[in-house]
Amino acid sequence: MRIVLLGAPGSGKGTQAQRLQAKYGVPQVSSGDLLRDAVARGTELGLKAKAVMDAGQLVSDDIVLGLIRDRLSRPDAEKGFILDGFPRNIDQANALAELLEALGQPIDAVLLLEVGRETLIKRLAGRRVCPKCGTVYNVHSMAPGATGCAKDGTELQQRPDDKEDVVIKRLEVYEQQTRPLVEHYAKLGLLRVIAGEGALDEVFERMESAALAQPVPADKVSVGKEATKSRKKAAPAAKRKSAQKSASAKRAKPKKAARKAKKAPAKSAGRVGTKKVKAKAKAKAKAKSKSRPRTKIAAKKAKKKAKLAARKSPARAAKKRAGKARKKK
Ligand code: AMP
Hints:
The protein is α/β, with parallel strands linked by helices. It has helices at about 15-25, 30-40, 45-55, 60-70, 90-105, 115-125, 165-180, 180-185, 200-210, 225-235, 235-265, 275-290, 295-310, 315-329, and strands at about 1-5, 30, 80-85, 110-115, 125-130, 135-140, 190-195.
């Protein structure tokens, strides 16, 4: 079992790693624990890391990588390991791949524990640790008024980086630097996503089955490809072509309109008209204004003219002739 546990701070990586370690006998390798140990021992490296950790930032890659390299070279890691909290960015992931290749121990799976933001904040800000035996508690599930370790009575402490403002920073750092690893490992075909909320035993069962499942090689995964293919087949070729045409026309139209709007003066921007149409409209307007009399005298003249024209009209002459003929009879 050579696995990497991925997930935001507070997603339960440490707790589940301890359970996997107890059941499968492979060591939990936690970069956070290695760093905290260096801090507690007051080593030069620990002193360097402390301020960065207390601010919720990531310790430099070379410091963490050095600790991980030493730990994975120990004999108990030969039969496998559960990496908890490492890698935390793409550079660390690449360095780990190189290191494991040199050790001849490639990763079997990357398990991502998904937990909602509110739960993460509640878990982290409520976490209390026994400084003597390391047992982890949460104020939300402890007996009211209890402040000591149930095993040895030692007063429980809050980790400096579990203070709420630092927790918010750590979640931000996770989103920016660690989240890209999800896509990275998905592309490598190693990622398995596990719902991290609910009872500890249930989450553990999900992790176990995900860790032990046989991975399907990427070239054997054809469900998605087939589904797209069959949908394309179902549509007749002509229909597909016309759909493509109208889609490209839709895409082209706004470009054309935009070009015309750009050419037209600002006043008429957006009005699209040809020269011919404009000339026709002008002529029509001129004719209309000509037929309309401008003054009262002109109007009278026009009326007289119209009467005379009507008298001269062939229909009126025919009517006159018919009347005369009737009188003669
Ligand atoms: P953790 O216990 O995994 O939440 O880690 C506690 C703190 O240790 C983090 O907030 C970081 O400051 C530091 N840390 C742990 N793992 C890494 C890592 N892989 N790279 C850089 N910093 C780390």
